[in-house]
Amino acid sequence: MAYSDKVLDHYENPRNVGAFDKGDDTVGTGMVGAPACGDVMKLQIKVGADGVIEDAKFKTYGCGSAIASSSLVTEWVKGKTLDQALAIKNTQIAEELALPPVKIHCSILAEDAIKAAVQDYKTRHGAGESKEAA
Ligand code: FES
Ligand code: FES
Fold this sequence. Notes:
The protein has 134 residues and is an alpha+beta fold. It has one domain (5-124): Sufe protein. Chain: A. 42% of the residues lie in helices and 18% in strands. It has 5 helices and 3 strands. It has helices spanning 5-12, 64-77, 82-86, 90-97, 104-124; strands spanning 27-33, 40-47, 53-61. Strands 1-2-3 form a 3-stranded antiparallel sheet. Strand 2 (40-47) and strand 3 form a beta hairpin. Helix 1 (5-12) crosses helix 2. The longest helix has 21 residues, at 104-124. Bound molecules: FE2/S2 (inorganic) cluster (2 copies).
């Protein structure tokens, strides 16, 4: 299957590969797996005192589309609030990367990874399921 130029670009030059210290309490970590193919994505956000995501990193063991999806979302979440990050939809990722239907689950993995990272951050900061700490 042919990958789109955008997928290839992110695959060959992935942005923000790496990891933050999990013990850092400004960091939220999301780790999700795709039941469809067994691939794993770890995505971390670093949140500033103002509640804005300053930085993000990922490690993905998966196909080119999964790597491109995680690379793209680490770029997208920077400068966003936690709630804005939660609003990112896999359909936006799939559209930006021109993913074919068989690769849609790769973008869902990236959406799930962001949600998991934000939830981890909120849990560690004593916020409830859906409310953000003021
Ligand atoms: Fe698992 Fe593509 S088959 S990432
Ligand atoms: Fe499974 Fe891409 S994450 S094929």
